[in-house]
Design brief:
This protein is mostly helical and about 100 residues long. About 75% of the residues lie in helices and about 0% in strands. The termini are far apart.
Length: about 100
């Protein structure tokens, strides 16, 4: 946006210089004003488009972050479920090994 502003100022300065040197100074001033107005309108349009693009990118980043957080929460829940001790009584503790008969 700064480069467009510099272009407008340069065009305005050139138009003013030509207007001062020529016979059609009022026409040159009107042309310079028209050019400045058009450049300002284009700069405004470009700024609006940039703001919209930034807003859309921020929304997409927020959605992606939310999705990743949900997936991480689900993975944590699954990990917690798999690390819990079995709660049912069907899993009996391992029996102690039988003693071998003693040799005499």
């Amino acid at each position: 946006m700064n480069s467009r502003f510099l272009i407008v100022l340069t065009a305005l300065a050139a138009a003013t210089t030509l207007a001062a040197c020529g016979q059609d100074s009022s026409k040159a001033a009107a042309d310079a004003k028209k050019a400045a107005t058009e450049a300002a309108d284009k700069a405004k349009e470009a700024a609006t488009k940039a703001a919209e693009a930034t807003k859309e990118a921020a929304k997409e980043a927020t959605d992606a972050t939310k999705d990743a957080a949900n997936k991480a929460a689900d993975a944590t829940k699954d990990a917690m479920k798999s690390s819990e001790a079995p709660k049912d009584s069907s899993a009996a503790p391992a029996a102690a090994p039988a003693e071998a008969p003693k040799k005499q």
